[in-house]
Design goal:
Layout: E1 6-9, H1 34-49, E2 53-56, E3 73-76, E4 79-82, H2 88-91, H3 94-103, E5 107-109, E6 123-125, E7 132-136, H4 145-152, E8 155-160, E9 173-175, E10 181-183, H5 190-199, E11 205-207, H6 210-213, E12 221-223, E13 226-229, H7 234-242, E14 246-249, H8 253-256, E15 267-268, E16 280-281, E17 284-292, H9 299-309, E18 313-320, E19 329-337, H10 340-352, E20 356-357, E21 366-369, E22 388-392, E23 395-400, E24 407-410, E25 417-420, E26 430-433, E27 438-440, H11 447-454, H12 464-483, E28 488-492, H13 495-498, H14 502-510, E29 516-520, H15 521-533, E30 535-536, E31 539-540, H16 553-564, H17 567-572, H18 580-586, E32 591-594, H19 610-621, E33 626-630, H20 633-642, E34 648-653, H21 656-663, E35 670-674, H22 677-692, H23 694-700
Parallel strand pairs: 1-2, 4-5, 7-8, 8-16, 10-11, 13-14, 23-25, 28-29, 28-33, 29-32, 33-34, 34-35
Antiparallel strand pairs: 1-15, 3-4, 6-7, 9-10, 12-13, 17-19, 17-20, 18-19, 21-26, 22-23, 22-27, 24-25, 24-26, 30-31
Helix pairs in contact: 12-22, 14-18, 14-22, 15-16, 22-23
The structure holds arginine (ARG).
Length: 701
């Protein structure tokens, strides 16, 4: 033994697989051989003894995993942070490790209760002593990292573990001498991989393959230029040799059955302190408040999922559950993120859910000037469909023209704010950046529930009776809106005509149920094709068969309308005498046709200038009470983006995926109906007729 490195180990006198707390232990309860375990442990012990001093902690009955001393705690200089085990199965080890640290002269820090941290299993010093890599995601909580930074006065870099086979950082990550790093990249999320790549230059990163990872090659003990591990492939050995290391293999298969190997069985208790470095953790925390029907609406679940999925972590500080059906709940949640960027990502999504900072933390929104027309500052806040307010000079200001995917521009006097599309920004605008001082107002209703009651998303094709029920409801609402002078906007695709819905939609227009029609070239072309020639895309609409030469019909129609100069003029000339567009012209219902790359013709009315078409759509949507989306995915998505929450949307499509996409706005107002649009329209018209003339129906019965 030449070195002054000290390692703590614990003999496997009572080692066994007694319970399952990681995937390796599954199926291995009492399957390991004590004799072989002792033999293998001795093999490791003697190897290490040749290069370091080994201290021993006394084995104890009832705590079989005590052999994994890496999980005793984390040591730096004469300070030890005691582990707080995540699983109760291992919590019994804590007093033994604590006693060992104390009797060996370490100052022991203990984390607050219920803040798990599993010691050197989840925290590994860079071997140059520059910083501490700390894992989270399975056993250790992200919130423990700032404590490590403070108590050990070291920079902590948080890495998120993603694969439950590699539940401790030391199972997939091993810093080596001279700045090398042995690791298994797929065990980490993208953000962590980026962080690793930023800190460790490519030539120092030794990324291992899965076959080595599952042999616990990263779970290695590095003593100067020696690397001790269970097993390594020839290529890995070569790689390490090339980097100047000597690989020593020693079989530890009995310990693999418990999910551990060489490194897990050791704790290095001499970690050199670098005095010139100081503590910091990029970990950020914030406390947010959520109010509403948090459970019924699923908001609380979604909020917590958002935090975890983005790589953060949470602690619910308070939860006041409303006990009556009508009463709302409130929660205070502490959000922790490994970096400022991740915190911003999480916060912007939580804001969309209606989360607010605590009153004492509310501050003004950050505004930045636009320095190039049509381009927002980098970190601009992206708007949603929900009513939004920004805080300017201590006041909450409502954002006008709410829509999705815009930026918030605040007026020079700070008294008003407006959603603006990127292309509409000018250098005189100031735009909200970051996530400070923004709130969205979500209806307090049991949003999710209602959506599902009326929709058939995910349920496949709805039964006829359920479609009828939903149609009854929609008919009733259409009637209300019409009687109160409201606005219904329809977006429709050509499928409306192909499925025989044309006459019904025409009737809705004629009877005043539609206040604007949005579509593309195709719906207009096929509607007029049907009126003028009786076919839709060449199919005879009465007999349902293709007409010879029918595929040319729509071009004839386009040509005809082009001759007259517009749809209006074709109607005026008495040439077009029926159909949806005819009814629009006759009843002064505005329509807007947005062009696309595949359009034939186009019709003179079709706007091939897309920005103009978007503006035209936006103008017609304004003030809408309901939007009926009839089998037209693209136009409907476009419309959905322009429409603030609060506008009822009814999306009808035979394809459940389209319905889900469009009606899943997480808002109370969307209804999805998976059915044939022609059938839907015919049922709708029948229902409206019933409402108009109930006696006629009664007579029939
Ligand atoms: N059975 C133990 C557990 O699941 C194994 C611990 C391995 N230790 C380690 N540092 N990776 O906790």
């Amino acid at each position: 033994m030449t070195s002054s490195i000290r390692i703590l180990m614990c003999a496997p006198d009572y080692y066994d697989v007694d319970y399952v707390i990681n995937p390796w232990m599954e199926g291995n309860i009492h399957k390991s051989s004590r004799d072989r375990a002792v033999e293998q442990w001795q093999g490791l012990y003697h190897l290490i003894k040749e290069h370091a001093i080994v201290d021993l902690v006394t084995p104890e009955k009832g705590v079989p995993d005590l052999v994994f001393t890496a999980n005793a705690g984390l040591v730096l200089g004469d300070t030890a942070v005691l582990s707080r085990f995540y699983h109760k199965e291992r919590q019994g080890e804590e007093p033994y490790f604590k006693a060992w640290f104390e009797s060996n002269g370490f100052t022991v820090h203990e984390l607050p209760p219920e803040l798990p941290f599993e010691g050197a299993g989840d925290a590994l010093f860079d071997r140059e002593g520059r910083w501490l890599w700390a894992g989270y995601g399975f056993r250790s909580e992200l919130d423990s990292h700032p404590y490590l930074a403070k108590w050990l006065d070291v920079e902590v870099l948080s890495l998120r573990l993603m694969d439950d086979r590699f539940y401790h950082l030391d199972t997939c990550f091993c810093p080596l001498n001279n700045g090398y790093l042995l690791y298994y990249p797929p065990a980490f999320d993208a953000y962590s991989n980026r962080l690793i790549e930023m800190r460790v230059p490519a030539e120092k990163r030794i990324a291992i393959a899965e076959h080595d990872a599952v042999n616990f090659a990263c779970n290695a003990v590095n003593l100067d230029q020696i690397v001790i591990m269970n097993k390594a492939s020839t290529e890995l050995k070569q790689h390490l040799t090339d980097a100047g290391f000597q690989v020593l293999e020693t079989p530890l298969t009995e310990f693999l059955k418990a999910g551990g190997a060489a490194k897990c069985l050791t704790l290095r208790v001499t970690e050199p302190v670098r005095v010139e470095l100081h503590g910091s953790a990029t970990v950020e925390s914030r406390i947010v408040q959520l109010d509403g029907h948090l459970l019924d609406s699923g908001v609380i679940n979604r909020a917590l999922d958002i935090i975890v999925e983005a790589g953060g972590s949470f602690q619910v500080l308070n939860f006041n559950l409303g006990t009556q059906r009508q009463s709302t709940s409130s929660a205070e949640v502490k959000v922790t993120a490994p970096s400022h960027d991740v915190m911003e990502t999480i916060m912007s999504q939580l804001i969309d859910l209606g989360a607010l900072p605590r009153p004492q933390e509310i501050c003004d929104a950050d505004l930045e000037p636009v320095i190039q027309d049509g381009v927002a500052p980098d970190d601009f806040y992206v708007t949603t469909i929900y009513p939004t307010e920004v805080r300017v000079n201590g006041e909450w200001v409502k954002v006008d023209q709410q829509r999705m995917d815009g930026a918030v521009a605040v007026s020079p006097d700070g008294k008003s704010a407006q959603c603006k599309l990127l292309r509409d920004l000018t250098t005189s605008d100031r735009v909200v950046v970051g996530v400070e001082g923004i709130r969205t107002i979500r209806k307090a209703a049991r949003e999710q529930r209602n959506t599902q009651e009326f929709s058939f998303m995910g349920a496949g094709v709805s039964s006829e009776r359920r479609v009828e029920l939903v149609v009854e409801q929609i008919a009733w609402e259409l009637r209300q809106i019409r009687d109160q002078g409201g606005r219904v906007v329809v977006t429709a695709g050509p499928v409306v005509i192909h499925t025989g819905g044309g006459e019904h939609l025409a009737k809705l227009v004629r009877e005043g149920y539609v206040q604007a029609l949005l579509g593309g070239n195709a719906i207009a072309v096929h509607d007029m094709e049907q009126s003028l020639l009786g076919t839709s895309l060449g199919v005879d609409m009465k007999r349902g068969v293709s007409v010879r030469g029918g595929h040319r019909h729509h071009l004839k129609v386009i040509n005809l309308v082009r001759r007259y100069g517009s749809i209006d003029k074709t109607v005026e000339a008495g040439v077009l005498q029926g159909g949806i567009l005819y009814e629009c012209v006759r009843n002064n219902i505005p329509f807007s046709l947005a062009g696309s790359i595949r359009d034939d013709g186009p019709l003179p009315d079709t706007k091939m200038e897309l920005i103009e078409a978007q503006q035209d759509y936006a103008r017609l949507i304004e003030g809408a009470d309901m939007i009926l989306m009839l089998s037209s995915m693209l136009h409907s998505i476009g419309v959905g983006n322009m429409t603030p929450s609060g506008v009822k949307m009814v999306c009808v499509d035979i394809n459940p995926a389209v319905v889900t996409k469009l009606s899943d706005r997480g808002s109370i107002e969307s209804v999805g109906v998976v059915t044939d649009v022609g059938l839907f329209l015919s049922l709708l018209v029948q229902q409206l007729d019933k409402l108009t003339n109930p006696y006629r129906v009664a007579e029939k019965v």
